[in-house]
Write a structure and sequence with these properties.
The protein contains 22 helices and two strands. With 496 residues, it is mainly α. Strands 1-2 form a two-stranded antiparallel sheet. β1 and β2 form a beta hairpin. It is globular and about 70 Å long. The N and C termini lie far apart (50 Å).
């Protein structure tokens, strides 16, 4: 029944945004599931007889989903324009589901179960790339969907909740991985010789304890199939966005959705504005100069170059190397801290502004990274200092670069180039996510003479320096967008 009054339904708006937000949750779930699975996965492929599974190979395998993320982000603009926002999200959900099943059982049809080989490694990575394409699509289309259904006075808050869902998805998978592992013994993998590793607790990994290598990592990956299936099914119950409906000539359907959300009179007004935007001439990518594109790309590059995702993906391994009790429990605690500081950003971004949060977050990350680096080379300092430093590092990211980067990317580009510019920026984000994640483990395990922990100090020292550079970049080149309309962005960049 069509809403004929001047008040829309908040419940209806909440329900369709909630479905889209599940896409953000899957984004976080898929990218962080490797944190609990990677050690069992590494031990499994170390048992292969036809090749030697090195740290470099493991770095690529642990981050292979990110190759798919680059592809998904690159095609997101085309999919959203040709298929629509809703169908693009359904495609992402299907890819999430297939990837979860394939990562659980990569031997399907072609290989004997439980026999590690180079061919099986390739098959596993292809399934992870498939899920990565889903992540890349969701990372671009979920915020777009929310922004296009949300009223203008609620848009910022609702889009920010997508970032919260990403972090919440990471927390959920940390907890799920912790529950799956339970009382089972995880393999302890240490360097044997240059380029080679060994399982140092192999004597304990007998019988049921070997479960973490044969079964544990499989269950962690397949657990994603539940939220992925739910997300895909629920998407059939939500509408296409009014903007896309209007762009494709389905004005009556667009008006129906707008009326349910905003009420009849407001819906007519919004539809008129949408139709005016649809007919607006398209401008070339560099119409507003190179600087705006450069700033957008570098925001994405710095969000990843500070090293946060390497820490999130390998958190249990890092805590284990610090000798801090149950590493999975420490990872869950870190997830809770991340949630708290993401909420801080959501509730302060409109009050404090984008630039101050980014600058202070960068400095906090630099301090945290420095604390880990110093602790790594000083035996006089207790490991708890390193743990606290990692928490400071992670928390500082969560109230700054985590959510604020996405807010700025959605705001900073003028209307007429936003689609193409966002696709480029997000693609660069995933490219550098892959670079950082795939290089983390080889750098982390480096040694220099008698300094066995040289790699620990070098890696975090490097991330700390990049954090300082990020703060300088924001201070000098990034405009403050608080309180500015999207039309103000066009005027701003035309002046430069």
């Amino acid at each position: 029944m069509t809403n004929t009054n001047n008040k829309g339904s908040k419940g209806y708006l909440f329900s369709i945004v909630l479905v889209a937000v599940i896409g953000g949750l899957l984004f976080g779930y898929d990218t962080a599931v490797i944190s609990g699975a990677e050690k069992g996965l590494q031990a499994f492929f170390m048992g292969a007889k036809d090749f030697v599974y090195t740290d470099f190979m493991h770095g690529i395998t642990s981050s292979s989903a990110l190759i798919g993320c680059v592809i998904g982000a690159a095609i997101s603009g085309i999919c959203a324009s040709r298929m629509g926002r809703k169908k693009s999200l359904i495609l992402a959900g299907v890819l999430f589901f297939l990837s979860a099943l394939g990562s659980y059982y990569p031997e399907f049809l072609f290989f004997p179960k439980g026999e590690a080989s180079f061919s099986l490694l390739i098959a596993f990575n292809l399934y992870r790339v498939l899920g990565g394409i889903g992540v890349g699509l969701a990372s671009a289309v979920c915020p777009m969907y929310i922004a296009e259904v949300a009223p203008s006075d609620k848009r910022g808050t609702l889009v920010s909740w997508n970032q919260f869902a990403i972090i919440f998805g990471q927390l959920v998978v940390y907890f799920v991985n912790f529950m799956i592992l339970g009382d089972h013994i995880a393999p302890i993998i240490e360097k044997a010789t240059t380029g080679l590793n060994e399982i140092t607790n192999s004597a304990l990994l007998v019988g049921d304890s070997n479960w973490s290598i044969t079964t544990g990592w499989r269950l962690m990956f397949v657990s994603e199939a539940i939220p992925a299936g739910l997300f895909t099914l629920l998407l059939f119950l939500v509408p296409e966005t009014p903007r896309y409906l209007a762009m494709t000539g389905r004005d009556e359907q667009a008006l129906t959705v707008l009326t349910k959300i905003n009420g009849r009179s407001k819906a007519q007004e919004i539809l008129g504005e949408i139709k005016a935007t649809v007919t607006e001439k398209k401008e070339k990518l560099f119409t507003y100069g190179v600087l705006v594109i450069f700033v957008g790309i570098m925001l994405s590059v710095f969000q990843q170059a500070v090293g946060i995702n390497a820490v999130l993906y390998f958190a249990p391994r890092i805590f284990e190397s610090l000798g801090m009790g149950n590493p999975m429990m420490q990872t869950v605690i870190m997830g809770v801290v991340n949630i708290a500081f993401t909420l801080l950003a959501i509730f302060t971004v409109e009050k404090w502004g984008r630039k101050p949060l980014l600058i202070w977050g960068s400095l906090g990350m630099a301090i945290g990274a420095a604390g880990v680096a110093v602790t790594s080379v000083s035996s006089a300092l207790p490991p708890i200092i390193a743990v606290i430093s990692i928490m400071v590092y992670s928390a500082s990211f969560m109230f700054s670069w985590g959510p604020i980067c996405w807010v700025l990317i959605s705001e900073i580009f003028p209307n007429t180039i936003r689609g193409a510019a966002v696709a480029i920026a997000v693609a660069f984000q995933w490219i550098f996510n892959f670079i950082v994640s795939s290089t983390f483990l080889p750098m982390y395990n480096m040694s220099l003479g008698s300094m066995e922990n040289f790699g620990h100090a070098f890696t975090y020292g490097l991330y700390g320096v990049i954090c300082i550079l990020a703060a300088l970049f924001v201070w000098k080149l990034v405009p403050e967008t608080k309180g500015k309309t999207l039309e103000d962005m066009s005027k701003l960049w035309k002046k430069k």
